Amino acid sequence: MTGIVYKSTGSWYTIKTESGDFLDCRIKGKLRISGIRSTNPVAVGDVVEYELDKSTDEHRGVITNINDRDNYIVRKSVNLSKQIHIIAANVDQVFLIVTINNPTTTTSFIDRFLVTAEAYDIKAVLVFNKIDTFDDAMLDEQLYLQHIYTQIGYECLRVSATQNKGIDKLREKMTGKTSMFSGHSGVGKSTLVNAIEPTLDLKTKAISLQHQQGQHTTTFAEMFDLSFDARIIDTPGIRGFGIIDMEKEEIGDYFPEFFALKQDCKFNNCLHKDEPNCAVKEALEKDEISWSRYKSYIQILEGEDENYRSNDFEDERAKNEHEQ
What we know:
Number of strands: 15
Largest sheet: 6 strands, mixed
Structural class: alpha/beta
């Protein structure tokens, strides 16, 4: 029997069966040691094969196989830097929720996320939220960022989840697709999802004034069916986004504006750093490429990972597991 994973809690998975029912499942033991380097062998969005669990009287299942994925998006795991955590699989598009402050979404974080989406061939859209709170300086910053990323080719949306601004356009972009929502804690993901589909009534929390960070309301990735022929995957707030499994020579290919100039560089394997006659650096000097993008590229190239730990919840869970 086949189903789609709608929720992952680390040990139990909720799948939607072909009949439309939901079933709690665990993983068959051998899947845990099948050579997958991820901390979670099964991810939300996975199409899986399962059988009913005959060892219990409860109506539960056992996942026996994971079907091939069309795509997936990953980040470094919270404690094991050599392992990956699959955030979601079989995604049509990702919406990165960006806020100018309260909390601040840095260009470094945006660029790392976009590079990963490019690497795994997933369309990414930037959603600037909380536009109703902008003063003149914040508006200038937001429009400047929108200009940078629009020039590269990324679609940018401006929304206010609390004022219901831009929601119809966002809904239109989601129709007929499976979309993942991601971003820092506190950027308003759950509030935005509630504005898109009020009947879901996801939990929301206010920003922590002391630290200007969001309090975590989503602790596990979960997919929801929406009323307008769409599915949404809500994910835990991410602090940082560690890049993984990329060779230095390929990183520049995931910056579309760098890739477009690559053929004009003197060397085929140009890293756009110290080489002579580099088309990317020449464009940078002419302000044809954003300095913030180039800075992000150099940081990724040199392995300067920002704090990639995923969220407070996982830090706390890891601490508790260590103490047990």
